[in-house]
Amino acid sequence: MEIVSITAEIGLDVGHNYAGGLGVLEGDKFYASARLGVNYTVLTLFYHKGYVRYDDNLNPLGEDQSDIRLRKIGEAVLQTKRGDVRVEYLEYRINTSRVIFIKSVSPDWAIKATERLYLENSEDDRFYKYLILAKASENFITNFIGWDNVKYVDLQESYPALIVLLRYFPRYRTIIHTPAPWGHPSFPLKYFREELGFELPFDPVVMTEIALSSSVEGIVVSKKMLHHVRRTFPHHFYKIRAVTNAVEIPRWQHPLLREVKGFEDFVRKRREIKTESLMKLGRGEGTNRVVIGWARRVTQYKRPDFILRLIDEVKDSVFFILGGKPHPREYFGLEVLKRFKEVSQKYSNVLFVNNVGINEERLIIWASDIWAFTPFSGWEASGTSFMKAGVNGVPTVASRDGAVPEIIKDGYNGWLYGEDRTELLPPDRYDHEYEEFRRKVNEALNHYEEVGYNAYLTFPKFCSMERYFKEMGFI
Predict the structure, then answer these.
(1) In this model, does residue 133 exceed pLDDT 80?
(2) How far apart are CA 430 and CA 433, in angstroms?
(3) Same structural domain for residues 114 and 232?
């Protein structure tokens, strides 16, 4: 039986078809399926201009997709009220796992609507982008897989949820990846009336509601998220459970760490990995300082201001690596990106990595001695950067958010700070948590190797895709 995942994004080691953690997680599941022999098909749009990259002046531009080689395996004509849309199905396959990229080839309005990930010029483009994803996915499953051959259709977030209005299937599952408001997109009722002929009793139409209503179950990506969905969707809570995220360890763990013989061997290999990775990041001289890494999507709730304050306070005693991408229409994130660049020019002990992709993220983790995980508690669904760090023996100073409380034991395999909130409070509150963060960083500076070794020993079992696949019913 086939597992089908429908997603707006996927982060592979080639191409630029993702924006953040959801895409990277989908990429990890793809590679894990190939390794474990799971029949796994990912359906997603092909964005010929990708998501966003920033030039040296931090101007947002499209991304080049020419490094990904795809094989055309079919095509379809999709009927919409705006006219027929012709799409091609382009396959990227490894063993039993494949990604089917849905590429709009005509007319021009459809090409334009699907050219960028999470970037549209109008509400019409946003709706029709995801209608194309839904219609093309329904067509592909019908004509290239067969619904009787599908064990589950997993809807990653609710953007793909229009498919449940096109085709009944008893084993849809909705995977909710964020407790934040943008995790529950909506569209005006007029689109459902005009395009699909439905008179729904609410306006706007919340897509997560549509998805959960038609799913056999909903899945959230950490145990903590259950508190949020209980409040947001109490009428669906009986069929919602938690399956905490994981990472594909062979993709993220440095090869030298696959066989470690005790603490001293661990320390020696970690130092070798750090020096090699710093060289690849353009710091060939290496550094004798402790390295703290912070790299993720740049947005307010992830509190990049914590790492900026830390840089100003510790000055030359620590080396910092900063990286990440903001959404090009998010003012806060763009201003922080400028600050990252400014501090890297001001201080010789700060490295700013622009346009962090999969390969850059790996190098930043490998080069770090300590990882900083700073989201405002209650806003992070799971978080996987601290898992990637942990399986590499890089301990994290972490807020009590997402999956962190399930894995990190304070002072043993990482450090915890701040409140363990289960409410979605505004992230501009509780600035007093910085002081505890600062104290925990001081502890980490003196004990990162011992605690990192404990992380190396304890993280792999919980964070493995084998555990995740069993809980998801893939194997």
Answers:
(1) yes
(2) 6
(3) yes
